Amino acid sequence: MDRHDLRRELEPIVRAAREAGLLAELRSLVDELVAAAPAAPAGVAFDVAAPVPMRFGMVGASTAMQRVFDLLEKVVQSDVSVLVHGETGTGKELVARALHQHGPRKSKPFLAENCAAVPANLLESELFGHKKGSFTGAVSDRQGHFVAANGGTVFLDEIGDMPLAMQAKLLRVLQEGEVRPVGSNQTLKVDVRVVAATNKDLAAMCKLGTFREDLYFRLNVVTIQLPPLRDRAGDVAHLVRFCLQRLAKELGRPIGIDPAALAALERWRWPENVRELDNVMRRAAVFAKQSVTLAELGPPIVG
């Protein structure tokens, strides 16, 4: 039995331990056993069709991800603001969508905005809306995300890149529960859950004066720290299986992976995290005949 088979066999025991309140103790033991188990030897086929461990729509069975899932279970039914922190490519928007789709607002809209991708002079309009004629190009009234998502969730990605002037306006929305569209003298009541995400140290930015401390405390009611892929022991194989299953449907043909190629993927440090793995698998699957080999992975992963 290789380490992947071992983890699959232990999953029912983990579920039973969770119900009995003994999950933390069992996790430590499981990780020790998994780490000590041998990797799949050369020539042993990788079972692409095996079930993929998932919770809240995210793949993962590592201790690091189980901590994330356990925290999600505690906050998903609440309306508190959540700050998701993690490196680029770790899946911060997936956490935001999980909070929405598994919570009481799931029947209402979910709208996302990347604060770093929208010019500062347009971000206010995107979030709060505008009135016709309020600026050049405003040919009609437009609802912003906070009005359009009323009753649902607004996800603000890269919140650390939001200009200070916009931070003050966002703070008012969080405090008063109302927005004022650009060019309007009237406010609109809104009820949204705000989930923000960043890969920056907002606490340090507060000390430097580049991020408002009062906004930071409003957003940071609960922090969910997403681990980088290099710290998620055993999850690379699960993510590879998930990617291959999805790509087989997209391409209309089964796709396997050679043990040597899987071993190379597990050795790689993944500086761009899950997003990088997804891109690597997508490119490799396009060129693979039946199974992904070292040739399809190429440098620098092969080394």
Number of helices: 13
Major sheet description: 5 strands, parallel
Portion of residues within helices: 40-55%
Cα-to-Cα separation, first versus last residue: 28 Å
| Beta-strand proportion | 5-15%
The helix/strand class is: alpha/beta
Sheet with most strands: strand arrangement: 4-5-8-3-9
Structurally, the number of domains stands at: 2
Rough shape? globular
CATH topology descriptor of the largest domain:
Rossmann fold
CATH architecture of the largest domain: 3-Layer(aba) Sandwich
Low-confidence stretches: 34-43
CATH superfamily of the largest domain: P-loop containing nucleotide triphosphate hydrolases
> Would you state the CATH class of the largest domain?
Alpha Beta
Q: Report the radius of gyration as a whole number of Å.
A: 22 Å
Mean pLDDT: 90
Write the H/E string, N to C.
HHEEHEHEHHEHEEEHHEHEHHEH
DSSP E strands, number:
11
Q: How would you describe what is shown here?
A:
This protein has 2 domains: 66-225, Rossmann fold, CATH 3.40.50; 228-303, Helicase, Ruva Protein, domain 3 (Orthogonal Bundle), CATH 1.10.8. Helices cover 46% and strands 12% of the residues. It has 13 helices and 11 strands. The strands form 4 sheets. A 5-stranded parallel sheet has the order 4-5-8-3-9.
Which SSEs are present, and which pair or pack?
Layout: H1 3-20, H2 23-36, E1 54-55, E2 58-59, H3 63-75, E3 82-85, H4 92-101, E4 110-114, H5 120-128, H6 145-148, E5 153-157, H7 164-176, E6 178-179, E7 188-189, E8 193-198, H8 202-208, H9 213-219, E9 222-225, H10 235-251, E10 256-257, H11 259-267, H12 273-287, E11 291-292, H13 294-297
Parallel strand pairs: 3-8, 3-9, 4-5, 5-8, 10-11
Antiparallel strand pairs: 1-2, 6-7
